Amino acid sequence: MQNVQSKVVLITGASSGIGEATARLLAKNGAKVVLGARRTERLESIVQDIRQAGGQAAYQKLDVVDADQVKSFVNFAQDTFGQVDVLFNNAGIMPLSPMNALKTDEWNSIIDINIKGVLNGIGAVLPIMEQQGRGHIINTASTGAYAVGPSCGVYCASKYAVWAISESLRQESNSIRVTVLSPGVTTTELGHDITDKAAAELVGQLRTMSLNVESVANAVLNAISQPDDVETSEIVIRSVSSFGHAF
What we know:
By secondary structure, this protein is of the alpha/beta class. About 45% of the residues lie in helices and about 15% in strands. It has a seven-stranded parallel β-sheet, sandwiched between helices.
């Protein structure tokens, strides 16, 4: 994984799940990782582990909904390690519910974090990457970007938006690599905030055949490690045991 060594990789939603697993794996392979999330106590613990294992890592509190915080996070990474090579836009939420439950506050949170959060990340790194003539933006979508199920409408719409934003950005740039990462159901904290009982039970059933976070982290590592003139534009990754299921 020579093309990972010494790269500065920024990761949002890094306090648990896919973000945490990816930070640990990339640092193990020689990347300098900068972790962002709202739970700073978790970030501090992860960064300490990485440093004790000989890796290079830093963290800053981050709410991706706040564009100014995202810009500050990117500036912090650049000031700490001197460059910005990769942004992994990973932060997201999944409070599923049927439309007639009218959980409009949850709809707005999905839009703010899953869509606006990704745009805030792109907006913060794009000028830097365009100026340096290189860079890599990885956006976490979902298999929900390709299929819709009951109680998943707003969430799936947000993930289709991530796919569309990523594909447009890919077509616009001949120097910045763009990857859209679409995992199937994965064992993470995602969905812990589901308030609808039926939707929570559905996710629980799907998680009996879910991916582990390390498998998704490996996919991110593979995309970053490709030669700089090679772009892995889409990664759809599912558990083999999900045969016959959309997610």
